[in-house]
Amino acid sequence: MLLLIPLLPLVGFLINASFGRRLSKSLSGTVACAVMLMSFAVSVAAVARLVGLPPEERAFSQSVFTWITSGDFSAGLTLRLDPLSSVMILVITGIGSLIHVYSTAYMHEEPDAEYARYFSYLNLFAAFMLVLVLGSNFLVMFVGWEGVGLCSYLLIGFWYQKKSAADAGKKAFIVNRIGDWGFILGVLLIFTRFSTLDFQELAASVSRLSPEQSFGTVSIITLLLFIGATGKSAQIPLFVWLPDAMEGPTPVSALIHAATMVTAGVYLIGRNAVLFGHAPLILNVVAIIGTATALVAGTIGLVQNDIKKVLAYSTVSQLGYMFLAMGVGAYGAGIFHLYTHAFFKALLFLGSGAVIHALAGEQDMRKMGGLRKDLPITYWTFVIGAIAIAGVPPLAGFYSKDEILWKSFSSGHTWLWAVGLLTALLTACYMFRLVFMTFHGHRANQNHENLSNHSNPSNHSNHLHDAPLPMAIALVVLAIGSILAGWVGRGGRFERFLEPSFGAAATGTVRLQADLAPEGNLETTLMFVSIAVAVAGIGLAAYYFLKNRAAADRLAENFSGVHRVLEHKYYVDEIYDAAVVQPIQIVSDDGLWKGVDIGVIDRTVNGVGQVVGGASEVLRLFQTGSVRVYAASAFLGVVVVLGYYLWR
Amino acid sequence: MPTLNDYLVLSAILFAIGTAGVFVRRNLITILLSIEIMLNAVNLSFVAFGRSLGTADGQIIVFFVMTVAAAEAAVGLAIVIGLFRHRESLNPDTFTSLKW
What is the pTM of this model? Predict the structure, then answer.
């Protein structure tokens, strides 16, 4: 049964990849959506069966075949469903299905073959992502890990004729490779140290280690795995690819670069909670990196003008939250945020896609405004998503974000909590800046001569059409999800459900929670603090971008230095360009190309030719063509040979 | 009574004459004749050795050499005629088109 879950999207991929060219749009879209929905149904059935088991036994696996056997070591293509992966497969297949449905409308202007290509990639992505989360050992996970990276590359560069899209795809792939390098080294180190790659066996043998034994190697292993996670999940220092990845179609950004693939790093840490639990130092690194990423990305998001870029930085920032949760040992809270974030961030991306769709490809928020009346469905669902991410109760984002903040405070990371709170303020602020700039105010018409008669409302709405039915369905369902998704986590139910997956690592946090139980008052106080912060953020955005746009411009002018740094994303791309790309290019150009290739290899090859040529110049003198000279040389040769033997 | 040495000296002289002819003369037919002289010088030493060792081997070899020489002369002369038709000359220095 488990095998069916990734197999169905794979079948969809094979159909669309082999026959897509000859299928009509509606048929290839239907195939792609149908396999995803079937996969979702199977996932629901599997999870239902899982929930039916008693909490301690909630896991079952399916061994498909033995992949590698060598001596004592064996690794199989084994799929395993436990509470953690059940959350992941529901998110992937559920939200994935909605995004597939949405895509049927969003991509409708593509030619038939491109349309099928798009859906084949999307299905392939879902298959790999499901393999990633269902794999019961590192090798199977790695297959999925690399597979989703490939699909991400293919989909970012879907419009490959556009140079910026092709470049963004390459950038994403290369940056991810750096992370994968860490991941591979980590896996190899696990293999040499523990001679197993199975998650369960690894957790068992790690938990037997005493703290002194586990200090060195486990720290290095977890650090390497975390490097892999920073690549995939766009954390400092490898976050630069995600904003560029917005070159891909918007549903792709929603599925891959918000809801699923980028959370793989969080999943990786959650899956190896026991391992990370034995490396407290690295957990601190994870928490600090996560918090720093949340803050840095949040501040950048505050000043971006491209609607998708804002959402991209918001994603990076929210992923930072998840890593903060992982780092303070609140694995359940991190996965909870992953799950709620998948709803509202997919919703926000799809909403922005609807806006872009309506405006025929316009992404600059400065050229938008006043879309509230023309796109009511998009507007209202988008507002729900924005409230959810801002952390206003009772929407989904509030529960998970508050949980993370509380866990980081209660585990003694007061500084991280403070930065997290500041980031929550930023989140509310940039998100409502986006809402107000896009949907409120007036449309700047000087850039839209093509939409003439801008003042004429009837003509105006002719150009702007609200989301077509499939897109509206996806938006509405996700909006409902964004409102309700948090409710499953009330009272720590979600964490308790996930607990078996984190093993001994999580019981520690539960004990911590029990110790702090009397401080329930404090938790409530902090809850109100975070609500107040969220409302304050919305209020700030309302003041600057709804009431008094001029004040925002003045503020930007007064702090023009800061504003410029933020607008240029802290010059991270430029720094990487100067520190990494340029040196590599110089070394490649002057060193490897002009030095090694031309200087050594080419000269060796040419040298061999020249030696042969030069020797021939001498040797050809013997080849006179005169018979008598040949005879003379033969005679001379005989004389020399004979003479040698006679006078020896 | 001439000894083996006398025969070998005569053979060496004949061989030297033939070799010199091949190197010095500028006529293909003369060169072919000089080669015949060299062959016969060798034949002479074969026969001389055979006689001095009291076996017939030397004489048998000579028969072989004579057969081959006849064949060689036939082919060689045919080539010379062909070359002459080609270049209207018998000077070997005109036939240097094998030179690279």
Answer: 0.80
Residue B28 falls inside a structural domain: yes
Neighbours of A164 (CB within 10 A): 11
Q: How far is A629 from chain B (nearest CA, A)?
A: 8
pLDDT surpasses 50 at A460:
no
Cα A506 from Cα A407, distance rounded (Å) = 13
Chain B residue closest in CA terms to A624: B99
We report the CATH number of the domain holding residue B38 as 1.10.287.3510
Give DSSP secondary structure letters for A305-370: -BHHHHHHHHHHHHHHHHHHHHHTT-HHHHHHHHHHHHHHHHHHHHHHHHHHHHTTT--BGGG---
A-facing residues of B in 31-90 (CB < 8 A) are: 31
The sign of the CA dihedral A112, A117, A120, A126 is negative
- The confidence score (pLDDT) of residue A448 equals 45
Q: Are A470 and A102 in contact (CB under 8 A)?
A: yes
Residue B43 resides in a domain: yes
Are residues B28 and B89 in contact, defined by beta-carbon separation less than 8 angstroms?
no
pLDDT in tens, A494-524: 888 888 888 755 444 444 444 455 567 888 8
Residue where the block lists tokens 């050809």: A620
Angle between helical axes of A396-410 and A469-484 (0-180°, round to 10) = 40
Query: Hey, how many other C-beta atoms are within 10 angstroms of the C-beta on A383?
Result: 17
C-alpha–C-alpha distance, residues A246 and A259, integer Å:
14
Q: Are A516 and A524 a contacting pair, CB within 8 Å?
A: no
Rg of chain A over Cα atoms, rounded to whole angstroms, equals 30
Backbone angles phi, psi at A448, to 5 degrees: -130, 55
For residue A32, pLDDT beyond 90: yes
Stretch (H or E) spanning A74? strand A73-81
**Structural domain of B46:** 4-92
First to last CA, chain B: 54
Contact A227, A269 (CB under 8 A): no
Q: Which amino acid is at A449?
A: E
Residues of B in contact with A624 (CB under 8 A): 96, 99
3-state class of A22 per DSSP? Answer: helix
CB B95 within 8 A of CB A627: yes
Is A173 in contact with A214 (CB distance < 8 Å)?
no
User: How does the average pLDDT of chain A come out, rounded?
Assistant: 88
Instruction: Write the pLDDT tens digit of every residue in B65-90.
Output: 999 999 999 999 998 998 888 888 88
Question: Cα torsion for A357, A361, A365, A371, to the nearest 10°?
Answer: -30
Report the C-alpha gap between A180 and A171 in whole angstroms: 14
User: Taking CB atoms and an 8 Å limit, are A631 and B96 in contact across chains?
Assistant: no
Residue contact B23–A631, C-beta within 8 A: yes
Q: Do B99 and A624 touch (CB under 8 A)?
A: yes
Shortest alpha-carbon distance between residue A612 and chain B (Å): 15
Residues facing A148 on adjacent strands: none
Let me know if residue B97 belongs to a domain. no
Counting every residue written for chain A, the total comes to 648
Burial of B64 (0-12, 13-18, 19+ CB in 10 A): exposed
Q: What are the counts of helices (DSSP H) followed by strands (DSSP E) for chain A? A: 29, 2
Number of separate domains in chain B? 1
Please give the Cα distance from A499 to A496 (Å, whole number).
5
Residue B100 lies in a domain: no
3-state secondary structure at position A413: coil
- What residues are paired with A621 via a beta bridge? none
CA-to-CA separations, A428 to A54, A339, A531, A535, A620, in angstroms, rounded: 40, 19, 10, 8, 86
CA torsion angle B20 B23 B26 B29 (round to 10)? 70
Residue of A36, A178, A15 lying closest to A94 (CA atoms): A36
Q: Answer whether A93's CB lies under 8 Å from A36's CB.
A: yes
Instruction: Write the DSSP string, A352-400.
Output: HHHHHHHTTT--BGGG---TTTT-HHHHHHHHHHHHHHHT-TTSHHHHH
User: Is residue A154 within 8 Å of residue A58, measured between CB atoms?
Assistant: no
